[in-house]
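Field log, afternoon session.

UNIT: design team B
ACTIVITY: writing a sequence onto a fixed backbone
BACKBONE:
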């Protein structure tokens, strides 16, 4: 049996629908919260405070030692610490600038150091006996580049001293051309960027450092105490993890310590030629695992195989 609605009943249904729809929409909107995906992984206030404290120490040490080396007064201050994509860091680099690759051990990762060349003429003038007069912004000569490289080595040394609490060592590799800098790490990688201002009597400029994500994450974990606060696993889970880890393989090698060779000796290399190494005959070899020196050792023969007799544990490896 069909039922026919009267006009007043139809109007009442529409009015009831209009009355409930806004409330339902309000309830749905109340459950939706805005989220900024670009803010994911950003430095927290606690981490920023720890980074600032660490780099304030670096700035003070660099101020003292660089002032003594240049025999003049200068001031180094931390300007900013932020996480930005590497391509944004590249866009901030001036056209004429000193860019260097710095290797961070023991991670083996490369970071980028950029120094404004506006300070170079004053530094070079001071080291050559002048009063630190500023000059025009231009590319460096070979001699001037060697002087600026010495400044970068001092910066890396002071970074190593200040950052020893996180167990990182900064090793200056070489200067990079601006076209080669983009190859050091992916341009989309989120980097930790530190910016310092170096202010001298006649000039000033910026020192910028960009660390890849693997280094930034390691630094932030160690600075905020998360490195030592690992989550505890159940006993059975830990045993399975230990059994799995014991099946992992690592590259191992018994090798002589590294030596330096002149370019002309390398040029004359040929099959059958004997190469002289500047090592004493009783110099002991190094047993390395995954590139890490663990023991001093002697090569021996074990049946048809070659082996290594471990003589002495390396102190740094046992710490």
């Amino acid at each position: 049996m069909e039922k026919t609605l009267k006009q007043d009943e139809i109007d009442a249904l529409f009015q009831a629908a209009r009355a409930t729809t806004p409330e339902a929409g309000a309830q749905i909107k109340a459950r939706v919260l805005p989220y900024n995906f670009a803010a994911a992984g950003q430095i927290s206030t606690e981490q920023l405070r720890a980074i600032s404290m660490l780099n304030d120490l670096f700035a003070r040490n660099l101020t003292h030692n660089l002032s003594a080396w240049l025999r003049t007064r200068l001031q180094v201050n931390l300007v900013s610490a932020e996480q930005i994509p590497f391509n944004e860091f590249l866009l901030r680099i001036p056209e004429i600038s000193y860019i260097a690759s710095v290797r961070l051990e023991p991670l083996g990762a490369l970071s980028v150091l950029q120094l404004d060349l506006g300070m170079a003429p004053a530094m070079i003038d001071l080291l050559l006996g002048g009063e630190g007069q500023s000059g025009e912004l231009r590319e460096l000569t070979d001699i001037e580049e060697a002087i600026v490289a010495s400044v970068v080595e001092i910066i890396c040394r002071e970074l190593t001293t200040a950052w020893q609490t996180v167990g990182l060592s900064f090793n200056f590799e070489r200067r990079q051309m601006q076209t080669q800098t983009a190859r050091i790490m992916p341009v989309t990688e989120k980097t930790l960027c530190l910016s310092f201002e170096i202010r001298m009597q006649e000039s000033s400029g910026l020192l910028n450092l960009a660390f890849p994500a693997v280094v930034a994450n390691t630094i932030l974990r160690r600075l905020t105490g998360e490195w030592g606060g690992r989550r505890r696993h159940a006993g059975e889970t830990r045993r399975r993890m230990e059994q799995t880890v014991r099946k992992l393989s690592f590259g191992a090698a018994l090798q002589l310590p590294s030596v330096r060779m002149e370019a002309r000796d390398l040029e004359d290399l040929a099959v059958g030629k004997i190469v002289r190494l500047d090592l004493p005959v009783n110099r002991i070899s190094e047993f390395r695992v995954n590139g890490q020196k663990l023991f001093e050792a002697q090569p021996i023969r074990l049946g048809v195989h070659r082996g290594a007799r471990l003589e002495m544990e390396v102190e740094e490896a046992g710490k």
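LOG NOTE: Residues 45-223 form a domain with the Chemotaxis protein chec fold (CATH 3.40.1550.10).
NEXT ACTIVITY: expression trials, pending approval
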